[in-house]
Amino acid sequence: MQILKVPINQDVFNEQKMKAFVNELKSDALINYIKSRITYQWDEISKQYFSYVEEALFGMRLLSKFSLEGRILEVGSGPGMLVAWLHMNGVNIMGIEPSELGFEFNLQLKNAIWDYYKLPPNLILDLIAEDLDPAVHDKFDLIYSVNVIEHLPKDNIQLAFTKIKNVLAEDGMMYHHCPNYIIPFDPHYGFPLVPMFPQLTGKIKGVANENLWKSFNFITLPQIKKVASAIGMEVSFQHKAMKDSFVRLEEDKEFAERHQTLVKIYPILKKLGIINIFGLIPPVLCTPMTYTLLRKGASGSYDDKGLKISVKQKK
C-alpha cells in the first residue's frame, strides 16, 4: 500500500493553524462544495457535520503529545477530517470507516472533502475494525480512536480489540477516548441515562430508532479492563479526563452547544471549586475515559503529565 510520504510538519499541532483548518472546514466555500456533491439535504446532516469538525480539533489536541513518527491508524475516521489534516502535514496516517452501518453520509462527506483538498483516495479504507488483517494492512506504531469504541457492536467488542492488536507493532500503543457509561450520561445527545437500564432512555426520549442511538454499546471502564486482560494487554487510564471535559466547555463552541445543561452549571461548579475535585475522582467513576493499551510485559502507564512510555511519544 503506497502512501505519499513527506516530512512531518512540525506545526502539525500549532493551535492557530489547527483552528485555521477547522475554520476552513466551516467556511461557505467548502460547505457549498459539499452541498453540491451529496445526495442528503444539508439540514439533515449539518449538525453531525459540525460535530465532526469539533471532534477533529479535539482529536488533534489529544494526539498532540505524540511526535507522530511511524505508521498510524485511526479507527473510525468519520468523514476523515483528522486524517486529512495529519496527511497534509506529512504524517503517515491511514483510517478505517465502514460506510454501511447507518452512517452512509460519512462516505459522501469524505469524498467531497477529499476532492476539495485533492487528497489520495487510499487514506481511508471502507472497513470495520473486525476485518483488520496484518497480512493485508501491515502493522502500525500508534492506533487511536476518538469517540468510536462506544459504537462497536456489543457482541464484537473483544473481537474488534483483538483484530486491532493484531495490526499493532510489538512496541506500539493503542490510544482511545470514549464515554464511560458507568456514569449514566450520554455525551452525544447530552442527556442523563436511566441508571442500570440505559436503553430505556432512548424510548423515553424518543430516539430509540435513530441510527446513532442504536449504535451505542454503553461500554464501561470495567469492560475495557476485562477485554484488555483477555487479549493480553495492559491498560492505563488517564486521570482528570472528566475535569478536562468541563474545561473544554470554555474552549469549544460546538461542544458547549451540545451540552447546554453543563454550560449552565459549569460556572457554579467552577466557583465552588468542584471542577478541581473532579480531577481527584478515580477514572472508574468518571466520563469520558482516555486510556492506552500496551502489550503485557511493557512497563508503562498514563499519568497526568502524559504517557510514560511510547517510542513515538514526544520527549
UniProtKB/TrEMBL annotation:
Any single GO BP term: methylation
GO MF annotation: an example: methyltransferase activity
Stated name of the protein: Class I SAM-dependent methyltransferase
Pfam families associated with the record: Methyltransf_23
Domain of life, source organism: Bacteria
Keywords assigned by UniProt, alphabetized: Methyltransferase, Transferase
Alphabetical list of CDD domains matching this protein: AdoMet_MTases (cd02440)
Keyword Mitochondrion in record: no
Cited InterPro entries: SAM-dependent_MTases_sf
